[in-house]
Amino acid sequence: MCMSLQFPGVHSLNPLNPGPSRVRRNQARAALLLAFAALAVFLILFAGERPASASTEDKLNETQSKIADQNEKKGVLTDEIAGLSSRIDDYEAQVSALRAEERDAELRLAAKQDELDKAQSEVDAAYKQLKVLAARLKRSLVVLRERLVAIYKAGDSDLSDLVLTTKSYGDLIESSTYIEQIQNRNESIVTRVRDLRDQQEAIVVRLKKAKDKIESARDAIAAEKQNLTTARQAVQDQQAKLASARADRQAQVDSIDSKVDHLEDIEADLQQKIAEQIAAASGVSVLPAGPMTSPSAAGLIWPVSGTITSGFGARSSPGGIGTTYHEGIDIAVPEGTPVRAAASGTVIMASYNGGYGNYTCVDHGSGLSTCYAHQSSFAVSSGQSVSQGDVIGYSGNTGSSTGPHLHFEVRINGVAQDPLGYL
Predict the structure, then answer these.
(1) For the whole prediction, is pTM greater than 0.70?
(2) What does the alpha-carbon distance between residue 309 and residue 38 come to, in Å, rounded to a whole number?
(3) CATH class belonging to 52-285
(4) Does residue 347 contact residue 360 with C-beta atoms inside 8 Å?
(5) Is 298 left (phi over 0), alpha (psi -120 to 50) or beta?
(6) Can you say how many angstroms the Cα of residue 188 is from the centroid of all Cα atoms in its chain?
(7) Could you tell me which CATH class the domain 1-20+287-423 is placed in?
(8) What is the pLDDT of residues 139-191, one digit of tens each?
């Protein structure tokens, strides 16, 4: 039950507390059932009325058991997804390292190919020069052979002609020396050309060996690059398999989430039926709370899923606590139930506020704000931006309250409105 307060300003915040775990949520469900059961027993003993039908409670227990089973499966799949993601990240690091090695190999291969091209050019030039020298040697040998043959064929007659045509002994001696010099000079040319050819052959052989060595190094680098590419591809193939497995498990998680949402809707309906049966036995009217998943025409969602135990406006003051005018609605939920933001906006208050207890207000713009009272703890702080459906706190029994519930307000320019007109 709640006290009535004017729209508050921004106050300093209390430290944030961590939210309850899924186990705590299941415990909360159990606590709610126990509360229903206790109330039913009370009504039997003191009011003489029948409790909620056993079949409805059995269905509720069965539904909650199914929810627990699905959440357990989801936990296993979530752990597997986390493990697969870790392995995929490891493979990604390996792929990055292999790509870096591939790039290095490509650079070394390109440099070695340039070196090989240069060596091939040098070999080609040397071989061309060798062909030129070989042709010159061939021509020199032909000329020498022809001259030697001519001298040989001339025999003594040529010598006699030389003696008869010379005018003196000195001329004869000079002519003989000249012929010998011609012969020696031709032989010298041939020898020099042969030496040059031999040297060029040696150069060609040396350059070809150097080229072969460079070519061998280039082939080794090319093989290394190919091995790196093959290794990278193998890692990427394995990575793709893991990604596929992760996607399959994520699809299973999504399917479980859908089933859990459906089961939770059933659970809420069953809890509503039990509450209505108990309320009918006690003569207290119960207003149903709608689902939180779909925004209303006004764009708001329910902050929690539960039974409305007190509506907006004039009311009796239960237990002497609170006033006769209620500026919000009270929704019965177990302590620790996550409270969701009814719409996106900015937190303008998250602090303890008298009878409201732990009190959070969210500004949604255009003068619209929503407030949440009696929380056990906060999950947001003032100034923080929140999205619709974000958990902003946890229901409780702080401030002026007769039991665990959420007091929910809708205000336009600070003036309280009936929340049911916006939900």
Answers:
(1) no
(2) 17
(3) mainly alpha
(4) yes
(5) alpha
(6) 82
(7) mainly beta
(8) 777 776 776 676 666 654 454 555 555 555 555 455 555 556 556 666 676 67
